[in-house]
Structures are given as structure tokens and as C-alpha cells.
UniProtKB/TrEMBL annotation, chain A:
Hydrolase as UniProt keyword: no
UniProt record similarity statement: Belongs to the small Tim family.
Classification of source organism: Eukaryota, Sar, Stramenopiles, Ochrophyta, Bacillariophyta
SUPFAM superfamilies named among the record's database cross-references: Tim10-like
Record-linked InterPro entries: Mito_inner_translocase_sub, Tim10-like, Tim10-like_dom_sf
Domain commentary: The twin CX3C motif contains 4 conserved Cys residues that form 2 disulfide bonds in the mitochondrial intermembrane space.
GO cellular component: mitochondrial inner membrane
UniProt-listed GO biological process terms: protein transport
Keywords (A to Z) from UniProt: Chaperone, Disulfide bond, Membrane, Metal-binding, Mitochondrion, Mitochondrion inner membrane, Protein transport, Translocation, Transport, Zinc
Pfam families from the UniProt entry: zf-Tim10_DDP
Role this protein plays: Mitochondrial intermembrane chaperone that participates in the import and insertion of some multi-pass transmembrane proteins into the mitochondrial inner membrane. Also required for the transfer of beta-barrel precursors from the TOM complex to the sorting and assembly machinery (SAM complex) of the outer membrane. Acts as a chaperone-like protein that protects the hydrophobic precursors from aggregation and guide them through the mitochondrial intermembrane space.
Single GO molecular function: metal ion binding
Protein's name according to its UniProt entry: Mitochondrial import inner membrane translocase subunit
Subcellular location: Mitochondrion inner membrane
Naturally occurring in which organism (per UniProt): Cyclostephanos tholiformis
From TrEMBL, chain B:
Quaternary structure and partners: Heterohexamer.
Entry annotated with the keyword Oxidoreductase: no
Organism, scientific name: Cyclostephanos tholiformis
Matching InterPro entries: Tim10-like (IPR004217), Tim10-like_dom_sf (IPR035427)
Localisation: Mitochondrion inner membrane
Official protein name in the record: Mitochondrial import inner membrane translocase subunit
Gene Ontology biological-process annotations: protein insertion into mitochondrial inner membrane; protein transport
GO terms of molecular function: metal ion binding
PANTHER family in alphabetical order: MITOCHONDRIAL IMPORT INNER MEMBRANE TRANSLOCASE SUBUNIT TIM10 (PTHR11038:SF16)
Lineage: Eukaryota, Sar, Stramenopiles, Ochrophyta, Bacillariophyta
CC terms in the record's Gene Ontology section: mitochondrial inner membrane
Entry text on domains: The twin CX3C motif contains 4 conserved Cys residues that form 2 disulfide bonds in the mitochondrial intermembrane space.
Family of the protein in this entry: Belongs to the small Tim family.
Membrane topology: Peripheral membrane protein
A Pfam match: zf-Tim10_DDP
Length: 96, 126
């Protein structure tokens, strides 16, 4: 995210607003994708109009596991990014 | 300041486009739940979310309920009642997933808050 610091201050504010909008949109997309995924996996009978007990449990577990998975993936991704940045900075320092 | 850090806006009115397609009661429940989940959406983002929800729901219920034999143009009675139940179950599922997401977000917000407090306390102690 070094590019953000390179922007002038008035554009930085706008960028942050755009970023926030993107995050909102992305979280809504995630919500819908998660619902679709968990419904497809967990619900297979249509005898009644409401979810059965085991289906409710399955859906809740599915959602929680997905969130935890996303968090873990984000953590490892951030670590990888930090490592890459460090390597790039070291290479730049060695070259100069 | 709401969950997404935006000013509270008046919620959008009922959407005429999908009024016929949804079971009205279930949609009202989901709408009120969604509004409590995120205090105020940008109306366009909310609209897009409902469009997305509808498209995914239609696709999923088609996959679950409609036979692939395609012998006739009309839906069979069983397929129609399956579709009704599918919609009801899908909206209930949507609600449950929203509740789980809300709890996770609240937990994360609490964690960030406590981290911030710890940082401030450490900074003040120096």
C-alpha cells in the first residue's frame, strides 16, 4: 500500500472513501455467497417451509467455519505480504 | 456513526420490482433484520444486494427443485410447492447467516476496541 502514501492529502481522503465503499460492497457480496454456499451444502429436503434443526445447525456451523477460514487466510496473506515487502526493501537497500 | 462508519440515512421503501416474486412476510423479516445488521446502507448497495440475493436464490431453487427432464414447458405441482418452500428456507438461511456474521463482526469490533485501549494505556504509562 505504498502507493497510498504517494497520493496528495486531498486525494488520500477520497481514496479512503472509495476503499470503504469497496469494502461495504465486498462484505455484502460475501454475505450472499455465503448464504448460497451454505444453503446448497446443508439444505436438501423441502418437506416444510422452515429449516429443520439439523439444517439450522449445519448452516450456522458452515458460516462460522467460513468466517474463521477467511480470517486465517487473511492472516497468512498479510504475513506473506509483509515478507515480500521486507525482501523488496532489503533488495533495494542492498542495491543502493 | 453506524457499523460501516456512515451517517444514518432513511431506509429505502418497498421495492416494486420484486414485490410479486417474494413471499411478503419473509422479505419483511429479512429487510428489518438486514437493517439492524447494517444500520444504513448506501441505497444503491442495498438494492444491489437484494438483486444478487434474488438471482442466487432463483438459481439455487432451480437446481434443487426443477427436474432436468424438460418434458413440458409448465412446472409440475410438486416443483411449484418445492419452490415455495425453497424460497422460505433460503430466506431463513440468509437470516441465520446474517446473525452469525453480525456476532463475528461485533466480536472483532470488541477485540479491536480492547487492543486500542491497551495501546492507549501503554502509551499513557510511558
Amino acid at each position: 500500500m505504498e502507493g497510498v502514501q504517494n497520493l496528495p492529502p486531498h486525494l488520500q481522503g477520497e481514496f479512503m472513501k472509495t476503499l470503504e465503499q469497496m469494502q461495504i460492497k465486498d462484505s455484502l457480496i460475501m454475505y450472499n455467497t455465503l448464504t448460497e454456499r451454505c444453503f446448497a451444502t446443508c439444505v436438501s429436503s423441502f418437506r416444510s417451509k422452515s429449516l429443520e434443526k439439523h439444517e439450522t445447525t449445519c448452516v450456522q456451523n458452515c458460516a462460522e467455519r467460513y468466517i474463521k477460514m477467511t480470517q486465517r487466510v487473511g492472516l497468512r496473506f498479510a504475513e506473506d505480504q509483509a515478507l515480500r515487502q521486507k525482501r523488496a526493501a532489503d533488495a533495494a537497500a542492498a542495491a543502493s | 456513526m453506524n457499523f460501516f462508519g456512515q451517517k444514518d440515512e432513511k431506509p429505502a421503501g418497498p421495492d416494486p420490482l420484486f414485490a410479486g416474486a417474494y413471499h411478503a412476510g419473509a422479505l419483511r423479516a429479512v429487510r428489518s433484520f438486514v437493517r439492524s445488521f447494517v444500520r444504513s446502507f448506501v441505497p444503491a448497495a442495498e438494492m444491489e444486494m437484494y438483486t444478487n440475493l434474488f438471482n442466487k436464490m432463483a438459481g439455487t431453487c432451480y437446481e434443487k427443485c426443477a427436474s432436468r427432464k424438460h418434458k413440458e414447458a409448465d412446472l409440475a405441482l410438486g416443483e411449484m410447492s418445492c419452490a415455495d418452500r425453497c424460497v422460505a428456507k433460503y430466506l431463513e438461511c440468509h437470516e441465520k447467516v446474517g446473525a452469525v456474521l453480525q456476532r463475528a463482526n461485533e466480536a472483532q469490533a470488541r477485540m479491536q476496541q480492547s487492543q486500542l485501549e491497551m495501546q492507549n494505556a501503554f502509551g499513557a504509562g510511558r
